Amino acid sequence: MQGCIPVGLAFFLAGEGPMAVAKRHTWREYYNPIRGLSMARLVAMEDNAERGQYADLQWFYYHMERSDVTIMSAVARRLAFLAALDWDIHTVGTADQTLAKEQAEFLRNAYERIGNFQEATSFLAHGLFSGFAHLHKVYSPFSSMVSYFEPIEQWFWIKHGGMFGEWRFNPESRPHEATGQAIDRKNFCVLDAAPLFRPISRQFFSKSLAAADWDTALETSANPSIFLIGPPGTTPEKELEYRTVAEQIVSNGRGYLPNGSDVKTVDTAQRSRMPFQERITYCDQQIVMAATGGLLTMLTESGSGTLAGGAHSRGLLELARSDAARISEVFQRDLDDPWLDEFWPGQPHAAYFRFDVPEDYNVPTMLEAVANLNWAGYRVDKAQIEDKTGLKLLEAPAQGA
């Protein structure tokens, strides 16, 4: 997101009149924080973030994610559930059902009117990695209904007053901005989380060093060192001539040597077995563990090939439930509560938004359970069986028909 925030953000700043707020950070487009990265620099950026100055660290996270295939794949896999996620409005069972029905219909209509809800949800979920995410509510004309969300990238934010301060906008993405511009919190949906990118960034740095050292080792040690010994009684003039011949032989692997010459090679096999690959593999494992909450160690496992089956599938389903619950809480707090307070002042909240993650049903086991219930004299709703198993059930013809 670059350029100007749409005019729909008229009251973006607290206490300000209508205005369009520009993201004036074009200078950052010429700065790649990965170039010349050191551990001291990484720690310094983390220290600044602890004091509420996120610009440099979040800009680094942005480049890091796009520079490493393991990180990009792990993030994509963690957030893949969003594409198939269903949402619904639920009611509180103990509440007045007439009130619950009215509020549920209102909330359902309000959410359906949001134009880029899936995009906004993906941006919010990505905040689980960066540590936070801000969605600005762009309202419909003359109402408090949200027509769409404007994502505001993480490097535009600071916390005024330190770690526990208030969120403020940093329009130029300055690395040591102290005050920023105050915002009206009720105009935002905000997710706060422990940044998964923080431990991942350490592994990214170590992996980058190992890969660079590996390239250097290949360049200097892949070919054996060759030393040519000239024939005895060689004059200084002949030594220069033989040196020229030796350089030609080393460069293309063939040539003529005078009688009495010898060739000695130095075995670099021991140096070539330095554990670069093992180190990179370890870093990849740590990255995947951090991205998946410790449930997975690699993106594939023996016998499954992909994350579609086995323990990986079950682990990701558990992550999906956890992430969906956290994102649902953001919308419940920053959308449901203000709307219901406005339109039902003083009334209890009897309906709420929630993402629903499909259950991981074992179809053969479920059908066996249905058969056992049938034998015991019970019947299971046909629509429920079709929904849980994905099977289309047809009535069997009567025997003898």
What's the SSE blueprint?
Layout: E1 3-4, E2 22-23, H1 39-50, H2 55-67, H3 69-78, E3 86-91, H4 97-112, H5 117-130, E4 132-139, E5 146-152, E6 157-160, E7 166-169, E8 181-182, E9 188-192, H6 197-221, E10 225-229, H7 236-252, E11 262-266, H8 269-272, H9 276-291, H10 310-343, E12 351-356, H11 363-375, H12 382-389
Antiparallel strand pairs: 1-2, 3-12, 4-5, 4-9, 6-7, 7-8, 10-11
Helix pairs in contact: 2-3, 3-9, 6-9
Give the strand order, joined by hyphens, for the main sheet.
Answer: 5-4-9
Q: Spell out the helices and strands N to C.
A: EEHHHEHHEEEEEEHEHEHHHEHH
The backbone outline, from C-alpha atoms, is elongated
- Give the termini distance in whole angstroms: 66 Å
Question: What is the share of helical residues?
Answer: 40-55%
Kindly estimate the percentage of residues that lie in beta strands according to DSSP.
5-15%
* Class computed from helices, strands and strand pairing: alpha+beta
The largest sheet, given as strand count, sense and whether it forms a barrel, is:
3 strands, antiparallel
Strand tally: 12
Q: What is the C-alpha radius of gyration, as a whole number of Å?
A: 31 Å
Q: State mean pLDDT (0 to 100 scale).
A: 82
Q: Total helix count?
A: 12
Low-confidence stretches: 1-21, 302-309
Comma- or semicolon-separated keywords:
401 residues, alpha+beta, 3-stranded antiparallel beta sheet, 12 helices, 45% helix, 14% strand, elongated, disordered N terminus
